Amino acid sequence: MDFEPILLSLKLAFITTIILAAIGIPIAYWLSGKSTTPKILAEALITMPLVLPPSVLGFYLLLAFSPNNGLGKWLHDHLNLQLVFSFEGLILASVIYSLPFMISPVKSAFGHLPGNLAEASYTMGKTRWQTFIYVLLPNIKASIYTAAVLTFAHTLGEFGVVLMIGGNIPGVTKVASIAIYDSVESMDYDSANHYALMLFAITFIIVLAVFIFNKKAVKNPFE
Amino acid sequence: MIEINITKRIKTYKGWEDFKINTQFEIGKITRITGPSGVGKTTLLKILAGLATPEHGLIKFNGEVWFDAKAKISKRIQERNVGFVFQDYALFPNMTVEEHLKFGTTDIEYIEYLLELGEMGSFRSNLPKQLSGGQQQRLAILRALSTKPALLLMDESFSALDKRLKSDLLFRLQVLFSAQGTTVLLVTHQEEEIVGDAGVFMMEE
């Protein structure tokens, strides 16, 4: 059995989770503050991948980053960057597709922190940044772990978006979910079963770990 | 002197109302603020700390303008050197007793002094959830003192303490306040919390 698709999926999930932790946590903090029109709009946009068919998102990303069209052409001509049918393109698509899985739990956790924790820190002379790092973040640690693990697991299971923007290039964009599809297409059910079983086992262990880790902090990681 | 003459729109169960206050507090003294529930005692403390912003008026601390609506001046919370003891303590769940104090000061001797003052030395490694209500309240007071504030705002800060502890702590705090020249505004319903020559400011609707 070829383990490359599984390794590629794990690599994609890992990189996506790191990127989303870096950009998702500050966005979640911003969204958790007083509700304003830009925030409502941003939140609606961020939530879209949850309800949109992955093929729709994949289709528009394919159009946007095609070297024949505006943005994709500009990236190709000026930065020599081709996102369509490349691993970098998969990362970008995964970041967009998994955005709500990182942001929603973290935003909810920030929202549930008592407001006077930050106020107490400010009266002690601490800046917003110091308060964020030393007071707010440590107190939502459990939710951050949950969000990271959910993002990782969700990215592992991506199919529609990945297929649209990445295609099926062995060693580049052929992740485990694509390998399953590819095996079934060629009637190789043994290989499909191996990939499927491995994805099932990895995902189950990850979700189980979240439940065990957070059994005291939250009742259900999807809350 | 702390000079306050402000108006703030506040939302009450009756709708939006103007909260107006025009008064002065002596510097270096303890003033007990009292009055019926919902009259705005906590709001006054929050405005002084910079945690709430009035729409109109002026606040001066010892001659220095902290807030001036007309001139659009509002001194940052972090620069007011104010200590705040919150009614619900607002302790940091991730920090031990000692870490709370270290968050306010790097002076180890002063931290030891505060731990002794609040009889909290044996709980230094405990998290807030491992403390009783009275211990949490003492920690909230010690934390507010850790930055050696010029103005200490205390919101019902002794309500969870037993009589013996309250009386001992008040005595020790009074010594500390005089040594540091701290101005204290203490919101309380308990008359026995008046210490020494403390003034009383009665808020009315």
Which key features would you list for this structure?
heterodimer; A: 223 residues; mainly alpha; MetI-like fold; 75% helix; 0% strand; globular; disordered C terminus; B: 205 residues; alpha/beta; Rossmann fold; 5-stranded antiparallel beta sheet; 5-stranded parallel beta sheet; 5 helices; 10 strands; 28% strand
Question: Average pLDDT of chain B, to the nearest integer?
Answer: 88
End-to-end separation of chain B:
24 Å
CATH architecture term of one domain in chain B: 3-Layer(aba) Sandwich
| Oligomeric nature of the chains | heterodimer
Q: Enumerate the spans of chain A where pLDDT stays under 50 for 5 or more consecutive residues.
A: 218-223
Low-confidence stretches of chain B: none
Shape of chain B: globular
- Specify Rg of chain B, calculated over alpha carbons: 17 Å
What is the H/E string of chain B?
A: EEEHEEEEHHHEHEE
Main sheet overview of chain B: 5 strands, antiparallel
- Secondary structure: helix percent of chain A: over 70%
Give the CATH topology of one domain in chain B: Rossmann fold
Biggest chain pair contact, residues each? A-B, 17 and 24 residues
CATH class of chain A: Mainly Alpha
How many strands of chain B? 10
CATH-defined superfamily of chain A: MetI-like
Beta-strand level of the residues of chain B, as a percent range?
25-35%
Number of structurally distinct domains of chain A: 1
